[in-house]
Amino acid sequence: MKRVFVETYGCQMNVVDSETLMAILVAAGGFAAASSVAEADVVLLNTCSIRDNAEQRIWHRLDELGALKKRRKGLVIGLVGCMAERLREEILEQRPAVDIIAGPDAYRSLPELLRQAESGARGINTELSKEETYAEISPVRLDSNGVSAFVAIMRGCDNFCSYCVVPYTRGRERSRDPETILHEVGELFEAGYREVTLLGQNVNSYSFGSVDFPELLRRVAEVSPLLRVRFATSHPKDMSDRLLEAMAVLPNICRAIHLPAQSGSNRMLDKMNRKYTREWYLGRIAAIRRAMPDAAISTDIIAGFCGETPEDHADTMSLMREVGYEFAFMFKYSERPDTVAARTLPDDVPDVVKTARLAEIIALQNELSLASNRRDVGREFEILVEGTSRRSDEKVFGRTSQNKVVVIPRIGLDGQPHKPGDYVRVRVTDCSSATLQGEEI
Ligand code: SAH
Ligand code: SF4
Ligand code: F3S
């Protein structure tokens, strides 16, 4: 029996991919999940290429594992995921310790690649597929809290935002058979899970036969009223009124919409190939607020994209204020080789300027998050308990439908401790910019 440890980097899709490839290995026979590098015969790094610093981390990690391999003869090292897809040649040349390389669509061949590695040959497969969705495979839930799980419903991306590497590392967009999705969600609910997050790079463009995303969402939500349903990430261009209507009538679809804007400047949005304008984006925000006045809205922002002027940056800041985001992921632009931006647009904003603009964006978001949390003080919510608070064993935490974390005393009004998977009605009593404090009511 070979014990396999997967170290996961990057986005939520990689988390579910690690669970999927583990299911493939376990089903093949002869492999089991290890819980640390120390007890593993095989270490797989599931990697990310989204920004340069994500790749730098992996190069360093490969050096560490290479050193470990010198001491532990027979240790097998594999590189999988987006960086394996993008840099296979460079890795083969520069890291002799790497035994196998598999791209995101090649996980079914992992048992075979590992057998090749055992016989001394390097196992390599970075072929992308137009069809692969790992549809019938139920992931082995690694590191799970037993309450919430990710469910991949589509793979790849056809949007080709000019800065982004994902369409190259993950290939063309394809959707998974809805029957297999519903089967997996049903199994999760039976196993005690109370929250699923439907995942895709562009989840709201899901389409399989006659089933589009609003229809899929409705079917998943109908698995049980006790199952919370989330999804990520949505592209603004596919945030249709039909989708908002489907959400509004189903209370177990969470009131949290992640709708990355990237920039508030029309000039930048055009260069980014985002396919919408600031005005159009704000129109979608207004539609969300009409359909679900209590929805939380979050975003991704890129600071210092090619040719970004102080005015463009000011447009981003004003967009953030205008929407009043609950939460944001914020990044400095990092040029990715071979993307349209890298080929045609100079990366001309100096790093110090990118850093300064990002700091302003982060400071503004902290202000907006705090203001949003202050508005919640005194309000009542239902939270789904996930686990023990990091700060205190006497407290547990859960999330509101809006995806905000609320910390409450462990012992409930009935004298019994709250358990992961419990729904608890709470009133918010206090807050910081990151969390809410509450009490059961
Ligand atoms: N498909 C999703 C998420 C893609 S990656 C979407 O379109 O929203 C997550 C985020 O990383 C992106 O939204 C973007 O904000 C950021 N990102 C992507 N490429 C980047 C780059 N080259 N430099 C900096 N940030 C980048
Ligand atoms: Fe990248 Fe754009 Fe696709 Fe998101 S929608 S994965 S940012 S190309
Ligand atoms: Fe990274 Fe690939 Fe996800 S580049 S963000 S792991 S799709």
What this model shows, in words?
- The protein is α/β, with parallel strands linked by helices and 441 residues long.
- Among the domains are: 2-125, 3-Layer(aba) Sandwich (Rossmann fold), CATH 3.40.50.12160; 289-375, Transcription Regulator spoIIAA, CATH 3.30.750.200; 380-440, Nucleic acid-binding proteins (OB fold (Dihydrolipoamide Acetyltransferase, E2P)), CATH 2.40.50.140.
- Helix content is 36%, strand content 23%.
- It contains 13 helices and 21 strands.
- It has helices at residues 12-28, 52-71, 82-94, 110-118, 166-170, 178-190, 213-221, 241-249, 266-271, 278-291, 310-323, 340-344, 351-376, and strands at residues 2-8, 31-33, 42-47, 76-81, 100-102, 123-125, 148-152, 154-155, 174-175, 195-199, 207-208, 211-212, 228-232, 256-258, 296-303, 327-332, 380-388, 395-399, 405-409, 423-431, 436-440.
- A 6-stranded parallel sheet has the order 2-1-3-4-5-6, sandwiched between helices.
- It is globular, with a radius of gyration of 22 Å.
- 43% of the residues are buried.
- Residues 157, 159-161, 164, 166-167, 201-202, 235 line the site of iron/sulfur cluster.
- S-adenosyl-L-homocysteine is lined by residues 50-51, 163-164, 166, 201-202, 233, 235, 260, 262, 300, 302, 331, 333-334, 336.
